[in-house]
Amino acid sequence: MPDLTVPDPPMPNPAAVRDDGADGWTLLVNPDTAGAMAVNATGVLVWSLVDGKRTIEQIVTAVMDRFPDAPDTVRDDVLAYLTKLTEEGFIGQEIPFPSTNH
Prior knowledge:
It contains 3 helices and 5 strands. The chain has a 3-stranded antiparallel sheet. It has a single domain, classed as Outer Surface Protein A, domain 3. Helix 2 (56-66) packs across helix 3 (74-87). The protein has helices at 41-49, 56-66, 74-87; strands at 11-12, 17-20, 26-30, 35-39, 91-92. It is α+β, with helices and mostly antiparallel strands. Helices cover 33% and strands 18% of the residues.
């Protein structure tokens, strides 16, 4: 699979489904690919910040604000997670429709 770049700002796949489990884990399901990812509370936080408006930097800052004692690798960890979400089709980018005006 080619190395995908995370769009900035990242946009969630509108088909993705989130199922919160009672055990503290959440399942993200992508009906487009039949793929699924089990994510912990930090992953859910990052996913909830992916709205097509917040930039990657704003998402990283929000995670750092939420977890002030997090290790120095937060930026790399968030980017790695966003990259994984992109690879699995949970994050994409808006593709503009061609203009039909002639």
